[in-house]
């Protein structure tokens, strides 16, 4: 989503942020800190700034121009000096134009906003571009290796006499190419890292491979001048191995991104630390991350109090997301899932069964091995809750069998995914003329009746006191949505069904 703020306002907000943040409350400080990057992903932006992307575009275009000029110079000097290494180096520089084109395409295409065909954005095209550059880099390394072998074989034949001036000129061109290409390597890599563009970084290594091939050409020319022609192929084989290794690394990294390999463990630890700063987060698990070009997506499972309402849980998710993107700037989007699994002795609805209580006792199940994970998954699959409306109807029907219970004002269900059952919290309306001891006994009957229902393993019964029907002592004043069916049962304990007698 787009921020809706004008560029001028955003610029003012950005410049004033260091002065305003210390004066604001924590919630406003966080909102202000995130304001300039609200459209990180779905609005077409990225973690990297537009300026970094423009610089990456410019340095790639500069590299393309340099490749054209160097290719011409190397080719002319190689022909004049009869240097196969320098001629091959010129062809290599010309082939780098393909790499530059792939880099420009991937850089621009991966920054496009999400659309109907690509709802998660176009970030994966960055990895596609990196893979393409990696393949071309490996092809260049292989080409240099083949040329080195051919040069070694040719070195056994009588050399053709070449003027010394031509050899000196060829050496000068090779040295110039080394300087230019090494400078392009450092500039392109730095800007690519700032723009979080793996394709631009891969293209930087292509510049490095061109610089190394120029080193081979320089060694070949120097060896020819010194009467040691075998220096050229030996250096070529070494450089070929280095370029093949680097191309393999780039291709492997691109494949990891395309196959959603887990992100760095240290970064995940930073994400976990940020998420745990939210007080309502009791624990977290299943923390995962994947990259989509310049974007880093995180999803996690957060353990919360099972009695928490859906609206409050949504606020917890929002706070977790804000904490993570504020403290880990590489993250573009956070998806939060909730775990409300209850443990033995854990608090329910803010109360602890064992009297000790405390939110810290509610922790998600730690899965130490695949077998336990599979068993838990099977239990959760086998124990899917019936419709909440069905269970509520059964609860009202069970309460209607107790004559002293006039109605039911609230029913809340909490589902335990581990034990495979529901905890029912119910507020009942009773005859206000009952004594406290009688009301306690009726509450026990109600609890027992509810716990006999399918999918229910625990009931928590409360007494509703502040309705008009309670104050005026009239069952007819109960609102229709709170009233229970009136069975034809006498209003005394002897008429109660034996099924509802609590044990003991």
Could you describe the 3D structure shown?
- This protein is mainly alpha-helical and 504 residues long.
- It is built from 14 helices and eight strands.
- It has helices spanning 7-20, 26-34, 50-81, 84-109, 124-154, 164-194, 198-225, 231-258, 265-275, 310-327, 370-382, 388-400, 436-451, 468-472, and strands spanning 283-292, 295-303, 333-339, 347-348, 351-352, 405-416, 421-430, 456-463.
- The protein has a three-stranded mixed β-sheet. A three-stranded mixed β-sheet has the order 6-7-8, with helices on one face.
- Helix 4 packs antiparallel against helix 5 (124-154).
- The protein is rod-shaped.
- 36% of the residues are buried.
- Residues 1-13, 15-48, 343-370 and 489-500 have low confidence and may be disordered.
- Its main location: membrane.
- This is Cation efflux protein cytoplasmic domain-containing protein.
Primary descriptors:
mainly alpha, 504 residues, 8 strands, Cation efflux protein cytoplasmic domain-containing protein, three-stranded mixed β-sheet, single chain
What coarse outline follows from CA principal-axis ratios?
rod-shaped
Task: Summarize the amount of helix as a percent range.
Answer: 40-55%
Going across the biggest sheet, name each strand in turn. 1-2-3
* Main structural class: mainly alpha
Spans of at least 5 consecutive residues whose pLDDT stays below 50 are 1-13, 15-48, 343-370, 489-500
**Residue-averaged pLDDT:** 72
Number of strands: 8
Family: Belongs to the cation diffusion facilitator (CDF) transporter (TC 2.A.4) family.
Subcellular location: Membrane
Organism: Prymnesium parvum (Toxic golden alga)
Main location: membrane
